């Protein structure tokens, strides 16, 4: 494997969130390489497992992980690993979280209650994180302090609004996480 000597630091980052929040879209919008995506058609086999009520138009789902790469500078590269959002895949988190410095936790402001199991896993694996409140066309812009309060987050946890379909918006959410990591980890 060739490693560019100009790159002095590479960082493993998880992009996490509940089912249908936009993890695959985020990595796809921002990756400078063709992202690895393990999307499969949703079939009848997922009935009773996947709640599509919040995402009625969703036809595919991640069955393993997503992977992308983003260079923030000549010396800092982020390797992005998107986790599946379904409860039945949570065993994969242990392996994916090994070596990760942090996590961008994507949340849908209309389905915040679905974020609590994800936040529990992020905290269980000791990951520093930032919250990206993904803005969907049909959702109102909730004040970020209300989202922070609803998720019971500390004041130190960054909460930013983002649109994962937009490269610049996704980049800004990841930059916020990296800045938080630099402050937290010294």
Tally of helical segments: 5
Task: Output mean pLDDT.
Answer: 83
Radius of gyration: 16 Å
What sequence of helices (H) and strands (E) makes up the elements? EHEEEHEHEHEH
Q: What oligomeric state best describes the polypeptide chains here? A: single chain
What does this structure look like?
Keywords: GTP-binding, Hydrolase, Nucleotide-binding. The protein is an alpha/beta fold. It has helices at 23-30, 92-97, 116-124, 144-150, 167-185; strands at 9-17, 36-41, 60-73, 76-82, 100-107, 128-134, 159-162. A hairpin with a 2-residue loop joins strand 3 and strand 4 (76-82). Helix 1 (23-30) crosses helix 5. The longest helix has 19 residues, at 167-185. The relative contact order is 0.20.
Q: What is the topology?
A:
Blueprint: E1 9-17, H1 23-30, E2 36-41, E3 60-73, E4 76-82, H2 92-97, E5 100-107, H3 116-124, E6 128-134, H4 144-150, E7 159-162, H5 167-185
Parallel strand pairs: 1-4, 1-5, 5-6, 6-7
Antiparallel strand pairs: 2-3, 3-4
